[in-house]
Automatic annotation (TrEMBL), chain A:
Organism: Pan troglodytes
Origin: domain of life: Eukaryota
Chain positions covered by the region annotation Disordered: 585-625
PANTHER family membership: ADAPTOR COMPLEX SUBUNIT BETA FAMILY MEMBER
Keywords, alphabetical: Acetylation, Membrane, Protein transport, Transport
Location of this chain's protein in the cell: Endomembrane system
Membrane topology category: Peripheral membrane protein
The protein's name in its UniProt record: AP complex subunit beta
Gene: AP1B1
Beta-adaptin appendage C-terminal subdomain domain location: 828-939
From TrEMBL, chain B:
Keyword Membrane: yes
Protein name per the record: AP-2 complex subunit mu
Membrane topology: Peripheral membrane protein
Single GO term (MF): lipid binding
Predominant localisation class: membrane
Species annotation: Pan troglodytes (Chimpanzee)
Coiled coil, from the record: none
Length: 940, 459
């Protein structure tokens, strides 16, 4: 039988012909036609026009034909959702078929059709199949839950499929267990907070039992899942390790690597004094070595992982140097990786062998490989002092070969050797100088120039050599220019008499003719140093240099620990955390090794510890929209919500900003501006009230429990401008809702009555939630305090500036307009986002919308800043530490529905106490105001 | 998990394409892919917004790439491609997630095995001829990107390309329980009139030797391949002269230690077919299993100690001036004189600027193959403890090339009828409690073959 003929029809009326054949009465002809359709589909022709005809062939007893039709459906259903419905009946019927293979086929295919309408019909059949008597159907259904979750996560939760899936972990059939584990792990990845994979000693035990019985692939799923578990104590860790160790003898390399991952991770918890710890270390080496006899692609994956393992626990493979020797016909990617590991394993014990090998490699053909080998020789010299001399002579031999790139590479490493062992190998300088002309790569030129400058006193013609480089100064790369500048200054300090002209030449080239600021600055510094105090110049320029350290290009420890948790996966191949190459939030939960101390408290697994507390105690997660008030109530009243009760809390902010009127008060801020109808001659648009800057974050009520910040009242409307009525006020957030606290003072001589208030449209949708109620008339000099509840459901209009809020109030028919500058309700309680959403949104917002600010003099640490901000409804989504800086990722939502995402970078111990803030928001105009809000909150 | 799987021919034309996950760019949004920048993430600057066609991206960046492939894993615009090549066919698995990379490669190899078991060599023609079958297999062995049972034995019971046979209910449930079951590799109810099994111990001996005859590295990687024609569900136990086992037993009977102690071998590491009970091996070091029917690889092992190196190569290269090279190579066989090595081939590399070669050899035939830049010396048979010699004069064209000739190592191929590691099969016991045949009734055959792996001597 040959199918290739199906690929060859290219006549004109092809689609038409196919249509006729599909509708043929003859079964054989139909089948042939469907095959042709699939062949066209494979090579990329659009055959979607045949949809109805193909679907018509679906009802058949012929399983082969049915599978072909299903294949077609999976490809095209999405483009023809309405027609796809035609297929539903057959699917549902097939799910009831007596033959388990057909039931499974139907449920498997249905899950691959990503059409909402079809998904609805999938639920019932899926529910049945999850409980099917046949394990083959159940294992297929388990994966189908993951498919459905990918299409409609909510539906899966609502239908209770997750619970059914959890039950399958206890299934009697190992393959069902394995697939259920795979599906749950995947679903859990997109819900880092949910406790889906509720791993406990009992369920772990079940998994370990299934591990012995299921297919090789199932073993991988289970081991990968186990690696996420955090044992309670070292005893549990050891017992799991004992049961995982046999997997190291599996023929499948992926099973072996996943087992290695579990062991490497749990080993962290074992005490080094334990006998078992030593045994385990010994058991790890042979399987790792065996991985190197696998196919080259797997060797590559294994080597990338071994590279990590060797850095984490060098003792495991320290005696296995020989297996990393390069074979002549290894693919280049294997050769380069092996070389890397050889250098890491090089020690005094094996250095002779390693050097002999490296010398051999330096004569190979592949340029990259040869370069790396030469560089490796240099690194050996630096790493193993006893070998330095031999390394240097090997490098000299290589320089004699005159192969251009070998020579250059050798010179670069010899420079490093000089820096590690000063005054030892300078005798070789003469040889190096012979090769000056052949150097055409910047790195090599720079290295050579450094050498000439550093040892100028021993090189008779140093000035000539350097002068020769100077001719083409402007064509050199920056690296070479900088090096040349320094070298000539060194030369001058060592041999001032003959080289004055040279140094002047280079200084003027660097300072006058160059556009490069680094070069210019360095030039000026030297110039001034030399002209003011040559002795000081000598001390500075010719100072003794610190020795270079021996290990280079090690992976940074926190990243290394994270990568160890990803052994076997792509992350370990790229040596990058998943967030660097995975789009969106999926699977980017930060993983870390367990702490060595085995206290049960601290064993909380990082991936199950989401941004907040576990669900039960967390009433504030994401309130349903639309019922803002209610939720707000909930929020602030509910017990554990806002940060630590107080302490820093309702600190009032002293005479903050204000004055600046609009801009500064932004988000909260409101400038009362007289509405045009004002009867009073008022301050149109003038920021009358001067200060109200506060507002912004109003979180809880005045002086109430939470630590939020309330600005002091400020005079918004002086009496003079409103016929004797003075209004001062501030914004507060009381139990979650926003109010405007007003203080009305009658400074006139007669009694005032009939107060009313009106808000103009503003950027935040602020409007009074109730009429202004002042019950008694206000006698002269009397003051009344009113709290006016505000809602944020008023109409929104973008104002210039954004925080401009115009309010008119007054008595009777004479409204006095004013504009309360103050901080408007910045964060709404809904402002909390989940991490993956955060990441997705962050990426989604174009980069030009990102604004960066610095907040100076803010001596807070990350914890304090986070809790301070949280009490103002700026939520911390995630926190991590990068290169010693604490990064806080935060989100907030303005009452008008604008989301703002923030990245706050705090450098502990930085004397200037500067905090850097990057904001991203779809409406970039609010950034400035949010920044001011941050500043106010943080400094307060 | 795996998002999609593509098979290409050498021109980069798609022969098979199966997409499992929505995140992989589909054909519709085709976009002529350009850009192949170097660096770990070529093409990334294109950004995720541009939905590139994964199929084309791989063709452009890998199959049609100008330079040699530098890694079997490529990341293009945040999509990762894993590939393996079989003759001139490319198999590529695509994903956007942080998948288990080792698993993806294992799966690709497995997929090649399965295809080979169904239709032989993996070639463009065979793939086109069997594309319906391949789609059916892909549907079965990969579900939503998760590998499922991929044992050929099990698959062949229900993916037949014969349409569906009218199976009885029992047959159906037998199939499903086999595919999902604990013993997925064997079906119940197998019957043979003659119970027979064959064991092949296949070893490849690898050597890297310095010109002075010092062993730089040597190891044997071996496989025990079993062909079983046994009825029922036989329980098997395999024993060999593993040092650890022998020493353990030796504690009981001092006698046996002295007898067999010398011959036991130290195994560095071994891996087993999934039928072997690993936990039992871990605890008792006994190898017990219920074998699949027919041929399978029971175990793989590696040894590095006390290897018998069947041949020693002694090279002598002399450069006579700039245009002539004199090469003399002696090979010595180092095993019992009663045994015969076969298919001996010595490959002596010659420089690229070779203009002519004259060879004289004592035994066999030697030829200069210009296309391979090597002198190939073949000897059909050679007994143990013998030695033979070849000498050659190589004329060189004068060149300006400054770069020295890299002198690749001299390599050797051969086959010998013993295991260079010293491994011996001690027993293979068969128990089938339900059927009435005993261990004695089973006919057993054992054969040892030692082949050269990478057997090189530098010169």
């Amino acid at each position: 039988m040959t199918d290739s003929k199906y690929f060859t029809t290219t006549k004109k009326g092809e689609i038409f012909e196919l249509k006729a054949e599909l509708n043929s009465d003859k079964k054989e002809k139909k089948k042939e036609a469907v095959k042709k359709v699939i062949a066209s589909m494979t090579v990329g022709k659009d055959v979607s026009a045949l949809f109805p005809d193909v679907v018509n062939c679906m009802q058949t007893d012929n399983l082969e034909l049915k599978k072909l039709v299903y294949l077609y459906l999976m490809n095209y259903a999405k483009s023809q959702p309405d027609m796809a419905i035609m297929a539903v009946n057959t699917f549902v019927k097939d799910c009831e078929d007596p033959n388990p293979l057909i039931r499974a086929l139907a449920v498997r295919t249905m899950g691959c059709i990503r059409v909402d309408k079809i998904t609805e019909y999938l639920c019932e059949p899926l529910r049945k199949c999850l409980k099917d008597e046949d394990p083959y159907v159940r294992k297929t259904a388990a994966v189908c839950v993951a498919k459905l979750h990918d299409i409609n996560a909510q539906l899966v939760e609502d239908q209770g499929f997750l619970d059914t899936l959890k039950d399958l972990i206890s299934d009697s059939n190992p393959m069902v267990v394995a697939n259920a584990v795979a599906a749950l792990s995947e679903i859990a990845e997109s819900h880092p907070s949910s406790n889906l994979l509720d791993l406990n000693p009992q369920s772990i035990n079940k998994l370990l039992t299934a591990l012995n019985e299921c297919t090789e692939w199932g073993q991988i799923f289970i081991l990968d899942c186990l690696a996420n578990y955090m044992p309670k104590d070292d005893r549990e860790a050891q017992s799991i390790c004992e049961r995982v160790t046999p997997r190291l003898s599996h023929a499948n390399s992926a099973v072996v690597l996943s087992a290695v991952k579990v062991l490497m991770k749990f080993m962290e918890m074992l005490s080094k004094d334990l006998d078992y710890y030593g045994t385990l270390l010994k058991k790890l080496a042979p399987p790792l070595v065996t991985l190197l006899s696998a196919e080259p692609e797997l060797q590559y994956v294994a080597l990338r992982n071994i590279n990590l393992i060797v850095q984490k626990r060098p003792e495991i493979l320290k005696h296995e140097m020989k297996v990393f020797f390069v074979k002549y016909n290894d693919p280049i990617y294997v050769k380069l990786e092996k070389l890397d590991i050889m250098i890491r394993l090089a020690s005094q014990a094996n250095i002779a062998q390693v050097l002999a090998e490296l010398k051999e490699y330096a004569t190979e053909v592949d340029v990259d490989f040869v370069r790396k080998a030469v560089r490796a020789i240099g690194r050996c010299a630096i790493k193993v002092e006893q070998s330095a001399e031999r390394c240097v002579s090997t490098l000299l031999d290589l320089i004699q070969t005159k192969v251009n790139y070998v020579v250059q590479e050798a010179i670069v490493v010899i420079k490093d050797i000089f820096r590690k062992y000063p005054n030892k190998y300078e005798s070789v300088i003469a040889t190096l100088c012979e090769n000056l002309d052949s150097l055409d790569e910047p790195e090599a030129r720079a290295a050579m120039i450094w050498i000439v400058g550093e040892y100028a006193e021993r090189i008779d013609n140093a000035d000539e050599l350097l002068e020769s480089f100077l001719e083409g100064f402007h064509d050199e790369s920056t690296q070479v220019q900088l090096q040349l500048l320094t070298a000539i200054v060194k030369l001058f300090l060592k041999k001032p008499t003959e080289t004055q002209e040279l140094v002047q030449q280079v200084l003027s080239l660097a300072t006058q003719d160059s556009d490069n600021p680094d070069l210019r600055d360095r030039g000026y510094i030297y110039w001034r140093l030399l002209s003011t105090d040559p002795v000081a110049a000598k001390e500075v320029v010719l100072a003794e240099k610190p020795l270079i350290s021996e290990e280079t290009d090690l992976i940074e420890p926190t990243l290394l620990d994270e990568l160890i948790c990803y052994i076997g996966t792509l992350a370990s191949v790229y040596h990058k955390p998943p967030s660097a190459f995975v789009e969106g939030g999926r699977g980017v939960v930060h993983k870390s090794l367990p702490p060595r101390t085995a206290s049960s408290e601290s064993a909380e697994s990082p991936e199950t510890a989401p941004t907040g507390a576990p669900p039960g105690e967390q009433p504030d997660v994401i309130p349903a929209q639309g019922d803002l008030l209610g939720d707000l109530l909930n929020l602030d009243l509910g017990p554990p919500v806002s940060g630590p009760p107080l302490a820093t809390s309702s600190v009032q902010m002293g005479a903050v900003d204000l004055l600046g009127g609009g801009l500064d008060s932004l988000i909260g801020g409101t400038n009362f501006v007289a509405p045009p109808t004002a009867a009073v001659p008022a301050n149109l648009g003038a920021p009358i009230g001067s200060g109200l800057s506060d507002l912004f974050d109003l979180t809880s009520g005045v002086g109430t429990l939470s630590g939020s910040y309330v600005a002091p009242k400020a005079v918004w409307l002086p009496a003079m401008k409103a016929k004797g009525l003075e209004i001062s006020g501030t914004f507060t957030r009381q139990v979650g809702s926003i109010s405007m606290d007003l203080q009305l003072t009658n400074k006139a001589l007669q009694v005032m009555t009939d107060f009313a208030i009106q808000f103009n449209r503003n950027s935040f949708g602020l409007a009074p939630a109730a009429p202004l109620q002042v019950h008694a008339p206000l006698s002269p000099n009397q003051t009344v305090e009113i709290s006016l509840p505000l809602s944020t459901v008023g109409s929104v209009m973008k104002m210039e500036p954004l925080n401009n809020l115009q309010v008119g109030s007054g008595q009777g028919r004479h409204p006095s307009p004013y504009s309360p500058t103050s901080r408007a309700p910045l964060g709404s309680v809904e402002g909390r986002v989940y991490r993956q959403m955060f990441l997705a949104t962050w990426k989604d917002i174009p980069n030009e919308n990102e604004a960066q600010f610095q907040i100076r003099d803010c001596p807070l640490n990350a914890e304090a800043a986070s809790s301070k901000l949280q009490s103002s409804n700026i939520f911390t989504v995630a926190k991590r530490n990068v290169e010693g800086q604490d990064m806080l990722y935060q989100s907030l939502k303005l009452t008008n529905g604008i989301w703002v995402l923030a990245e706050l970078r705090i450098q502990p111990g930085n004397p200037s106490c500067t905090v850097r803030l990057s904001l991203k928001c779809r409406a970039p105009e609010v950034s400035q105001h949010v920044y001011q809000a941050y500043e106010t909150i943080l400094k307060n | 998990m795996i998002g999609g799987l593509f098979i290409y021919n050498h021109k980069g034309e798609v022969l098979i394409s199966r997409v499992y996950r929505d995140d992989i760019g589909s054909r519709q949004a085709a976009d002529s892919a350009v850009s192949s920048s170097s660096g770990p993430f070529p093409g990334e600057r294109l950004g995720g917004s541009m939905r590139r066609n994964a199929v084309d991206a791989f063709r452009v960046n890998v199959i049609h790439a100008r330079q040699q492939v530098r890694s079997p894993v490529t990341n293009i615009a945040r999509t990762s491609f894993f590939h393996v090549k079989r003759s001139n066919i490319w198999l590529a698995a695509v994903t956007k997630q942080n998948v288990n990379a080792a698993m993806v490669f294992e799966f690709l190899y497995k997929m090649c095995d399965v295809m080979a078991a169904y239709f032989g060599k993996i070639s463009e023609e065979n793939i086109k001829n069997n594309f319906v079958l391949i789609y059916e297999l892909l549907d079965e062995i990969l579900d939503f990107g998760y590998p499922q049972n991929s044992e050929t034995g099990a698959l062949k019971t229900f993916i037949t390309q014969q349409g569906i046979k009218s199976q009885t209910k029992e047959e159906q449930s037998q199939i499903t329980s086999q595919v999902t079951g604990q013993i997925g590799w064997r079906r119940e109810g197998i019957k043979y009139r003659r119970n027979e099994l064959f064991l092949d111990v296949l070893e490849s001996v690898n050597l890297l030797m310095s010109p002075q005859g010092q062993v730089l590295s040597a190891h044997v990687s071996g496989r025990v391949v079993m062909k079983s024609y046994l009825s029922g569900m036989p329980e098997c136990k395999f024993g060999m002269n593993d040092k650890i086992v022998i020493e353990k037993q030796g504690k009981g009977t001092a006698d046996e230690t002295s007898k067999s102690g010398k011959q036991s071998i130290a195994i560095d590491d071994c891996t087993f077919h999934q039928c072997v009970r690993l936990s039992k091996f871990d605890s008792e070091r006994s190898i017990s299993f219920i074998p699949p029917d027919g041929e399978f690889e029971l175990m793989r092992y590696r040894t590095t100690k006390d290897i018998i190196l069947p041949f020693r190569v002694i090279p002598l290269v002399r450069e006579v001036g700039r245009t002539k090279l004199e090469v003399k190579v002696v090979i010595k066989s180092n095993f019992k004189p009663s045994l015969l090595a076969q298919k001996i081939e010595v490959r002596i590399p010659t420089p690229l600027n070779t203009s002519g070669v004259q060879v004289i050899c004592m035994k066999g035939k030697a030829k200069y193959k210009a296309s391979e830049n090597a002198i190939v010396w073949k000897i059909k048979r050679m007994a143990g403890m013998k030695e033979s010699q070849i000498s050659a004069e190589i004329e060189l064209l004068p060149t300006n090339d400054k770069k020295k000739w890299a002198r690749p190592p001299i390599s050797m191929n051969f086959e010998v009828p013993f295991a260079p590691s010293g491994l011996k099969v001690r027993y293979l016991k068969v128990f089938e409690p339900k059927l009435n045949y005993s261990d004695h009734d089973v006919i057993k055959w054992v054969r040892y073959i030692g082949r050269s792996g990478i057997y090189e001597t530098r010169c």
